[in-house]
Amino acid sequence: MKSTTSRLDRFISQNTAFSISDTRRLIAQRRIYLDGDVAHSVQQPVTEFTHVLLDGSCLKNNTPVYIMLNKPKGVVCATKDTSHSTVLDLIQHPQKNELHIAGRLDFNTTGLVLLTNDGAWSRRISLPETKLAKTYEVTLSKPLSSEYVAVFQEGLYFAYENITTQPAVLEILSKYTARLSLTEGKYHQVKRMFGFFQNEVVALHRVSVGHICLDELELGRSRPLTVKEAAVGVIHCGLK
Length: 240
Ligand code: URA
Fold this sequence. Notes:
The protein is α+β, with helices and mostly antiparallel strands. It folds into two domains: 6-60, Structural Genomics Hypothetical 15.5 Kd Protein In mrcA-pckA Intergenic Region, Chain A, CATH 3.10.290.10; 66-230, Pseudouridine synthase, CATH 3.30.2350. Helix content is 20%, strand content 28%. Strand 2 and strand 3 form a beta hairpin. Residues 105-106, 109, 188-191, 204 line the site of uracil.
């Protein structure tokens, strides 16, 4: 997602018949309002969600949208696919065609998928630097042992990317099931981590991202995030 923030004078020149240099005069004449306040500087930022009025006409008024979905198996985490249903097919929202996915799941993985039209928000929650925990319930084909806990905590070397995985927390729930919390999202990361022990993942379900939890949401259903949940993506990352 590229940043869509621009300076007010550039925004005015790109979206009206006025030029960059006209903007100073429009400001002095108090003809521009940003989010309800009269504009005061040509350098004021205009983000993808800034409400911009010029002479009382609205130039831009996007609303940020944040949605959680409980993705079923066999649905593609993409906005388009020629042969399978996509996560967007499961969502009813008037702005659904503006949404992108903040952290994909594999075709057969189930659970929490976040969708938004807010590029800055999805960047924040996806960046490894934010160390936001993504928690999965995992079912394995072979029995687990305490050795896994230590190895995942230490980090595993992924030759393809030439990286060592960040410390991950594994909680063994039963002989074949565990809860795993990661702070990053490398390609097929969970399957590759258990692959180190030649232990195949037979079911994988994401239950939470930071403090955003699926809880009671049924498989295949979606709902908007609450204001508090959407803010968690910001506050928990400490990047406000
Ligand atoms: N790790 C995987 O291997 N698959 C997913 O879908 C998510 C994390």
